[in-house]
Amino acid sequence: MTHKSAITIKDVAQAAGCGVATASRVLNNSGSASADVRERVETAARDLGFSFSAIGRALQSRRSMTIGCLVPSLANPVFAEAVQGVQAELQGSGYQLLISCSNYDEAADDAALEMLLSKDTDALIATMVAPERSAALQLAGRRGIPVALMFHDPMEGFVTSYVDNVEAAREVARQFARLGHRRTGFLALRFSTSDRSRNRYAGFLAECRAGGLPDPALIEIGEAEARQPDRLAVILGQHPGLTAIFASNDFLAIALQNAARLLGWRVPQDMSVAGFDGIEIGRLLEVPLATIETSPEAMGRQAARLLLERLQGGAPVQPPALSFHFRAGATLAPPTPGKGDDGRVAAQPPSAPPAETAQQG
Asked: PANTHER family from the xrefs (predicted)?
């Protein structure tokens, strides 16, 4: 048996058959746990000689009891829900969350992480432009500070909580092909600075080629076009032959529908649209959005669990991808005969007031 002086909350959790965060909630008498789990944790703590005072010493010794969290934006509900998941998982652990936003800027990413490190945070959770190039993350590694990424596909040197962007995008291509679409497009915002967007395009492209379809058109836009439907309509009007477009996130998919309306194109009769993320507002539209539905809250919870396990002496272990599913919505339909390649031409879009900002996912 482990020597009493070396007992940690991880030992208690393993003996009780639960996670570290759950054991912490029980021993701190904070947060919910079933009667069965509570009894197992308390029994394991007694058998191992692990007391509440021991957990206090284990958690507080040479630690600030803070975890830094960096996301691109809280205006995008995808990231807001992930942060809520982190907070929910940390409840009862004794750790407080310090949150920073970078507005999708690589330099701001590093500046924010350097600020969080200056606060002596015990661990970091991050969604960034380019974690593989981040000097601040390298500094965290040299200091032995645990890091968990969110939304990023796995990359060497980091653990990450993620959805398989490539496979999810393949599913969108399969849905388009099933309905008979051949001329498709991929709409991306800040394509060069989002590994998520690039991986989604890569999966979409690969599945189109696997199905013998033409390569999808890559339509890259900037913030101005994403915010203003009339400007996006001008770009969309340059692709009159496309019958289905996959937007790299739901906000872009909604902006795309607004732009199509300015051109007099109906969704889905004249153009099918699919997004990515599954934000709730997509269900509430007059034409509910077809999208890849994920669980950002579960992603945040998983990232927090990874850090709590590291903070209790566990080794970094990359978990498998979280689940996703395709939500059919009402923005998909077979291409209308006579439309698309032969029957639709670009229209002159009327002027329109700026719309709600499209957020990068």
From this structure: HTH-TYPE TRANSCRIPTIONAL REGULATOR GALS (PTHR30146:SF109), LACI-RELATED TRANSCRIPTIONAL REPRESSOR (PTHR30146)
